Amino acid sequence: MQILELEGLLKILIDRKNVKKRELESLVGKLIFFSKAVRGSRAFNRRFYDAMILVAIPHYKVRVSSAVREDMHMWLQFLDKFNGITYFPQQEWVHSTFPTVVYRQCRDNRSWMWLFFFSGKLDLL
Predict the structure, then answer these.
(1) pLDDT (tens digit per residue) in 30-84
(2) What is the C-alpha radius of gyration for the chain, rounded to an integer number of angstroms?
(3) Residue 118: in which H helix or E strand, if any?
(4) Of the CATH numbers 2.60.120, 3.30.70, 3.90.550, 3.40.50, which one belongs to the domain with range 2-81?
(5) Count H helices, E strands: the chain?
(6) What is the pLDDT of residues 96-112, one digit of tens each?
(7) What is the C-alpha end-to-end distance of the chain, expressed in Å?
(8) Chain region(s) in the chain for CATH 3.30.70
């Protein structure tokens, strides 16, 4: 559901020449949340930050440059092919001396699944 919401927002904003700073902030917030799960995707958020810095007041318009539009296209292409599965590198999980807690919202959007990873073993809660 969140992927569809992000994809819809990108499709709305990509054709505009100018967007309100508040709308761009909303998009960037969703991209940041998504970037926590997808490694390497934060690099494609930088141009959004640069565009927002130029405007101080939230209801003022921000010009959507061709570079920002290219990043929006990249995100749309990625979201179209993303299957919802993200892999974590093995070394970060196995060699940790502290327990790692991972939580994920389930498909019905009402429940959460908690995963605990400690010393190479995975437990569900």
Answers:
(1) 898 888 777 778 888 889 999 999 888 988 999 999 999 999 999 998 888 877 6
(2) 18
(3) strand 112-118
(4) 3.30.70
(5) 5, 5
(6) 555 555 555 555 555 55
(7) 24
(8) 2-81
